[in-house]
Amino acid sequence: MSTLEDRYRRLLAFYPREHRARHGEEMVGVMLATAGAERRRPDPGDVLDIVKGGLQIRLRHAFGPESAVHWRDALNIAAIVAPLHLLVSEVGTWGMALWVAGALLPILTLLPIALTLLQFLVLVLALRGMRRAAAAGAWISLAANVAMSVRFRAEMPVSSGQSAVSLPLEFPFVSLGTAFDVLPVLVVALLLTFAPRPAEGAALIGRRRLLHWAVTAALTLNVVGALEYFLTPEIIPDGMATTALVCMACGAASRTPAGRRVLVLLLPPLVVIYQGVPLSSPYDSDWFPTVVRVMVATVIFIVARRGFRPYGSGTVSFPEPLA
Amino acid sequence: MQEPTFLILTALAAGPQHGYGVITDVQEISGGRVRLRAGTLYAALDRLQSEGLIATDREEIVDGRVRRYYRLTGEGGTRLAAEAERLRRHADAASIRLRARLTGGALMGLGAAPSHAGGTA
């Protein structure tokens, strides 16, 4: 049977972790001192007061004056992560794109590659601290994407019974058929315009770590895409590899105050970009695969958040060997 | 400045106090009218610390539990003095007007009495 102290201690879950670590014991002591000897359960008024106090502290830490530095860091990080995500997503389809390139019009192959190179240039400019040039490049990229999207939609009518998003291969030039395709580029342009110093965002994550993630993600997407296409061509790709990578990155980001704010900034556009595909594919009418996907995504997020320690210490990104 | 904040700063103006000490002191200062709960107290202490109005003074271990003492900072003392002065001015203004009202009412009452008396005479 739990004691009054246990019950008070459980109420502290409403407080931020660092506040609990610093003031938890102290608060339990004060609550026990004010409770009196006869009390066995917390007074409902005390419970409400504890919950209210915890929420007030969380809100102040999240949006108060002292959080300004975290929001600035988050904006800088998001301004680097967003174009990198865009670049990796596009490069992640290049293996398959090159495979079928011969069957497509050259303009449909070359233009997306040119746009990807422009995204690469934007990222390089941002990493080198040339924020204005990077933002200008991002807006030019947006204009080019809009023009290409409009042209694609006008000139490439989709056969009856098949929508643009239901095509088996999701290349940039195919997904440009939907209005959603310009959203990632718009998000990048806005972030690079408003972030004070995107290069500092890259330094906060670590340039080597960013490179590590980008290369791993691009290779994974290409390999999984090829395996899905050649081993099970009759099954439409469900984007589980993307889900796993996004959840892993989100879990790792959620460990730090600035990382959690990056998620607040980037999750709404990510949800719109994937149209919910990472967590519930529109192709499934059965609930079971969706539940399995959600569970796998949750496990990946939790493991990445806690830090995967296969060798006793370190994280999934930088496991430290036993020796 | 809200009343609990004013009372917490007032409690700490006498010297460093721990959480439970602040609660009992505030109850005494307010004549038993304000009873701070732990959630309200620690939300206020967290805010006041972030604003630099109070600071941690020292820590003690009592019955195996940390007891942290808080003290008023220089800025906290200045803010409390300013707030006390503001409240004093308001209280003075209210007192002066209430006295004037009472005096005026009394005079009016005195002035009205003869005419009333005269009317009935």
What can you tell me about this protein's structure?
The complex is a heterodimer of chains A (323) and B (121). By secondary structure, chain A is mostly helical. Chain A has helices at 4-11, 17-35, 44-63, 68-91, 94-100, 106-127, 131-155, 172-175, 182-194, 198-205, 207-231, 240-253, 257-274, 287-306. In chain A, α1 packs antiparallel against α2 (17-35) and α7 packs antiparallel against α9 (182-194). Residues 160-177, 311-316 and 318-323 of chain A have low confidence and may be disordered. With 121 residues, chain B is α+β, with helices and mostly antiparallel strands. Chain B has helices at 3-13, 19-29, 38-50, 74-120; strands at 17-18, 54-62, 65-72. In chain B, strands 1-3-2 form a three-stranded antiparallel sheet. In chain B, α1 crosses α2 and α1 (3-13) crosses α4. Chain B starts with a helix and ends with a helix. The relative contact order of chain B is 0.12. Classes of the chains: A mainly alpha (323), B alpha+beta (121). At the A-B interface, α2 and α3 of A face α2, α3 and β3 of B.
Structure summary:
The complex is a heterodimer of chains A (323) and B (121). With 323 residues, chain A is mainly alpha-helical. Chain A is 70% helix and 0% strand.
Basic shape of chain A: elongated
Largest interface: A-B, 26 and 19 residues
Q: Order the strands across the largest sheet of chain B as they lie in space.
A: 1-3-2
Task: Tell me the number of strands of chain A.
Answer: 0
Helical content of chain B (DSSP H or I, runs of 4+): 55-70%
Number of helices of chain B: 4
Strand-and-helix sequence of chain B, N→C? HEHHEEH
Question: How many strand segments of chain B?
Answer: 3
Return the structural class of chain A.
mainly alpha
**What low-confidence regions of chain B span 5 or more consecutive residues with pLDDT below 50?**
112-121
Number of helices of chain A: 14
- What's the gyration radius of chain B in Å? 23 Å
Strand count, sense and barrel status of the largest sheet of chain B are: 3 strands, antiparallel
Anisotropy-based shape of chain B: elongated
Biggest sheet of chain A, open or closed, and with what strands and sense? none
